[in-house]
Design brief:
alpha/beta, D-Maltodextrin-Binding Protein, domain 2, 6-stranded mixed beta sheet, 5-stranded mixed beta sheet, 13 strands, about 40% helix
Length: about 270
C-alpha cells in the first residue's frame, strides 16, 4: 500500500511539474521601449491570446538593460533595437543575440529646437545627436545627406565626429544619450532623434526638418528586430510571437497609428 501511495505521489508531482513547464512554454516575456514597440506588442498580445499564449511586456527607457536582461535569461526576447545596434552590442559586450525576425523601420528625423529650419542655422549652431556609436553614425549620415557636414568617403555606419572632413559653419555636434534627446531639444538648435523617442514625445515625422531617404540603405541597416538569445529563434513560442508581430492586424495598426514614423517591413 505504501509503495502504491509513493508511486501515486511521484506521478502527481511529475504531472504537476509538467503542467508548470507547459504553462511556462505558453508565457512569453518581452522587453520593449514604450513607443512604438510596447504599443505594437499590445496588438500582438491579443493575437497570441487567441492561440493560448500569455505575452508579458516589460518596458524599459534605455537601450542597455533590455539586452542585458535578455542575456541574463530574464526575458525571452526583446523588441526595441535595430539590427546594426544589436550586432554592435554583441561585439562590444560579448552577448550572443540574433534576430528572430525583422519587423519595422523608424526613419530618423531632424527636429527643430531653438532654430525653426535648417536654412536658419547660424554659424556655431548646436546640433544634438545620439551618443551611442551606431545611432550617432546614422545621425551624422543624415546631417551629411542634408549638406550640413561632409564625411569621409565610404565611412558609412562607422562614422563618428572624427569622420567629419568639412564643417563650414562650425556646427557644434553635441552628443546626448538617445533617451534624453527630446528633453534636450529646447536647449539646442536642432536634434537628430531616434524614431521611437520622437514618437514617445509626441513629435511627428511629418513635421521633421529632414528625414532619412526612404530609398537609401537605412531600412535594411536599421530594421527593428525581435531579438533572442542564439538558439532560441526557432522555438515554438518565439515563432508564435513572430507570426503575431508580422500579422495583417499589426501592419494595419502601424500604418494607421504612426503616420509614416514607423514603416512595416513585412
Amino acid at each position: 500500500m505504501k509503495k502504491i501511495l509513493a508511486i501515486v505521489l511521484a506521478l502527481t508531482l511529475t504531472l504537476a511539474l509538467a503542467a508548470c513547464g507547459g504553462s511556462d512554454d505558453k508565457t512569453i516575456k518581452v522587453g520593449a521601449t514604450p513607443a512604438p514597440h510596447a504599443e505594437i506588442l499590445e496588438i500582438a498580445k491579443e493575437i497570441l491570446a487567441e492561440d493560448g499564449y500569455t505575452l508579458e511586456i516589460v518596458e524599459f527607457d534605455d537601450y542597455v538593460l533590455p539586452n542585458t536582461s535578455l542575456d541574463e535569461g530574464e526575458l525571452d526576447a526583446n523588441y526595441f533595437q535595430h539590427i546594426t545596434y544589436m550586432n554592435e552590442f554583441n561585439e562590444s559586450r560579448g552577448t550572443d543575440m540574433v534576430s528572430a525576425a525583422g519587423i519595422h523601420y523608424e526613419p530618423f528625423g531632424i527636429y527643430a529646437g531653438k532654430t525653426a529650419s535648417l536654412a536658419e542655422l547660424a554659424d556655431g549652431a548646436q546640433i544634438a545627436v545620439p551618443n551611442d556609436a551606431t545611432n550617432e553614425a546614422r545621425a551624422l549620415l543624415l546631417l551629411a545627406q542634408e549638406g550640413l557636414i561632409t564625411l569621409e568617403e565610404g565611412v558609412g555606419l562607422s562614422a563618428s565626429k572624427d569622420s567629419i572632413i568639412d564643417n563650414p559653419h562650425n556646427y557644434e555636434i553635441v552628443e546626448v544619450k538617445a533617451e534624453l534627446l527630446t528633453t534636450t531639444l529646447q536647449d539646442v538648435d536642432v536634434a537628430v532623434i531616434n524614431g521611437n523617442y520622437a514618437i514617445d514625445a509626441g513629435l511627428k515625422v511629418a513635421e521633421a526638418l529632414a528625414v532619412e531617404a526612404a530609398d537609401g540603405d537605412a531600412a535594411e541597416a536599421y530594421v527593428n528586430v525581435l531579438a533572442v538569445k542564439s538558439g532560441n529563434e526557432n522555438s515554438e513560442k518565439i515563432q508564435a510571437l513572430v507570426k503575431a508581430l508580422q500579422s495583417d492586424e499589426v501592419k494595419t495598426f502601424i500604418e494607421n497609428t504612426y503616420e509614416g514614423a514607423v514603416v512595416p517591413l513585412f
